[in-house]
Design a protein that fits this description.
signal; 13 strands; 183 residues; 3-stranded antiparallel beta sheet; 3 helices; alpha+beta; Alpha-D-Glucose-1,6-Bisphosphate, Chain A, domain 4
Length: 183
């Protein structure tokens, strides 16, 4: 009987030691959509927003001037995770993702980190998303709202690339500030 219990306990212990705990981003980040105002006309803001997209290297998927909507193509996103004191490891990243802590090594890595035996893919974080900008005339100026939609990350699994939606992320506001400064 002891041998049976021991035989069942060893795989359970081995599997539980390989598990990890997910920790969502805990720092203070702006809520989406991020809004800002300027004193320029709708036309001027619209033209500058289109220019800002091209300067950032973002292709435009949808452009509807009558509703003030600009949506980028699904594009790569610079991402990071939080280190000590809930501060992003890479301060210039556009989004912060959750991290996971492995039980065996207590090492913190982002949830999007790809771990594989192939060295080329070992540290690849492939995130993509669409920037959505809405511009509205607001009294004497213009209101601009910026948000991120359809964020995904790519996982290499069993010799296949799998695209999964990413729900646990927060915008750092860096992209939005860059856009606001160019408008």
């Amino acid at each position: 009987m002891k041998k049976v219990i021991l035989a069942l306990a060893i795989p359970v212990i081995a599997l539980s030691s390989c598990s990890y705990k997910t920790i969502p981003a805990q720092g203070i980040y702006p809520d989406q959509p991020i809004s800002f105002q300027n004193n320029k006309s709708f036309e001027e803001t619209w033209d500058q927003a289109i220019s800002a997209f091209s300067q950032e290297g973002l292709a435009i998927k949808l452009i509807d001037k009558s509703s003030g909507l600009i949506v980028s193509e699904n594009s790569p996103i610079i991402a990071t995770w939080e280190g000590n004191s809930n501060i992003p490891v890479h301060p210039n990243a556009y989004i912060v993702v959750a991290k996971r802590v492995t039980q065996t090594t207590a090492r913190e890595i982002p949830v999007t980190k790809i771990k594989t035996i192939r060295p080329k893919l070992d540290s690849a974080d492939i995130l993509r998303g669409e920037w959505v900008v809405r511009i509205k005339q607001n009294g004497s100026g213009t209101q601009v709202q910026v948000s991120l939609a359809n964020v995904t990350h790519v996982i290499y699994s069993r010799q296949l690339w799998v695209v999964k939606p990413l729900d646990q992320f927060k915008s750092t506001g860096i992209f939005e500030k860059r856009l606001a400064s160019s408008l």
